[in-house]
Amino acid sequence: MAAHRRTPLSRQVRLRRTIVCAVAGLLVIGGGAGGYAYWKLNGNIKSVDINGQLGTGRPPASTNGSFNVLVLGSDSRNGRNGDLAGGATDGTARSDTAMVVHVNQAHTQAEVVSIPRDTLVARPACSAVGTGKAVPAAKGVMFNSAYEVGGPACAVKTTEQLTGLRMDHYVEIDFAGFADFVNAIGGVTVATTVAIDDRDSGLHLAAGTHQLNGDQALAFVRTRHGVGDGSDLGRIELQKQMVKSMLAQVKGLGLTSNPARLWSVGDRLTRSITTDSDLASVSALVGLADTLKPIGPENLAMVTLPVVTAPGDPNRVVPAVPGATQLWQALAADRAVPEAVLSSQPANPAEATPSATARPTGGGAASATRR
């Protein structure tokens, strides 16, 4: 696991006290079943040896305490994922959502860069999932194809080639896991100034503020054709809104004083994720949570990789120059997202100016249909 710089003593004491309370909460669940609880949560976590698979020849790790995490949302339809809307139906798994999370040296700010799945990139040579057969490098392929052909290791390798940044950690969450996690934290609140009606994702929202359950939240982050121009860029803006809503919800739960809720959230989260080997334990995840605790929604700069329409294909995009280059260079230097990138971000289609016939409400009807 990448080394993380220590925070000032006073804050560190508070954080240690919080973590001790959290662990104590797990230990008292079910009487003397603390050992079982810890074993159960550890056993839930799936992992991939990214470092072992990729070996050398990668971008160097930071030496100043900053670090990067590649977060993927997988659209595999295996298991319970098959009951949920919008996933791959051909037996493959693709990275439907991709975010590079850069945590600064002081661990007080995070820059989150969403990479559109339709971005055309140069994919390096990888090993096929399952067989280990060599997959040759390719140019002008969709970003999410890397995960499809070579799994997490190929996704990390492609991201590192695209960004020039070392991905110190890897976290993947699947559809069912995302929905379960949202249910475990009691749902999330979102607001939209326009109605959303998307038959593909199964989401139907009136304009207004809504408390979404897990299935509805999943449909919200997958909505594409029911609002705005139907592009992946618009959907990414909805995903950014959801991330901040989830963080706000978790911050307000008071998990350390509610052992039952803490267990529910921990169990569902650990059953939902696949991580790199260094994060594949409860203690490692608690350590990462300790590091990230000072970062709230107000300390997140969430942007989409600057892109332009691909030459010859209006349905694909390519990184914009110089915007994309400037963005990755800023993160490599542990600087904030450049103002030029911030000022050119796509609009959130859920926050569009409503038409004369749209009437925002205090809590309009919300539904999500399973497909």
TrEMBL record:
InterPro entries: LytR/CpsA/Psr_CW_biosynth, LytR_CpsA_psr. Residues 340-371 are annotated as: Disordered. It comes from the Bacteria. Coiled coil: none annotated. Residues 94-251 form the Cell envelope-related transcriptional attenuator domain. Keywords: Membrane, Transmembrane, Transmembrane helix. Gene3D superfamilies: LCP protein. The chain crosses the membrane at residues 20-39. Belongs to the LytR/CpsA/Psr (LCP) family. This is LCP family protein. It comes from Kitasatospora sp. CMC57.
